[in-house]
């Protein structure tokens, strides 16, 4: 399989419980900007939800956000009252990594956001697979794990 310039990460999709709240969080606190919004979409045939791995009868809305050179797709699903969520349309995601200029400063800003939980202080890695990486983790008000990171130059000091 080729991994040349024709291959690149386009976006990360995450299901959120409230599209409006998630967009506000990423825009206000992490500098994302909205590229486009898609109004709630209902497909009476069920083909669109099934193509996305969701159960028949679901409807969804989405927002595509730009975070620097990366894109983040946020989806909110509405299931029928009698149908459990499937793995594709249940709230979740492993984590989103957001590169910031200053991890301690970003962490300080996020500490003041209601519902955000800081999971530890910044760590600086000097060796191994991620030399010069500084990172810290927080959870959003709805529980998504967000990694804040920056890459230090070889002559920069630890944070």
Automatic annotation (TrEMBL):
Q: Which Pfam families match?
A: Glyoxalase
Keyword set for this entry?
Metal-binding
InterPro entries (UniProt xref): Glyas_Bleomycin-R_OHBP_Dase (IPR029068), Glyas_Fos-R_dOase_dom (IPR004360), MMCE/EMCE_epimerase (IPR051785), VOC_core (IPR037523)
Specify the VOC domain's residue ranges: 8-151
Q: Which domain of life is it from?
A: Bacteria
> What's the protein name?
Catechol 2,3-dioxygenase-like lactoylglutathione lyase family enzyme
Provide the species name: Nocardioides marmoribigeumensis
Phylogenetic classification of the source organism:
Bacteria, Bacillati, Actinomycetota, Actinomycetes, Propionibacteriales
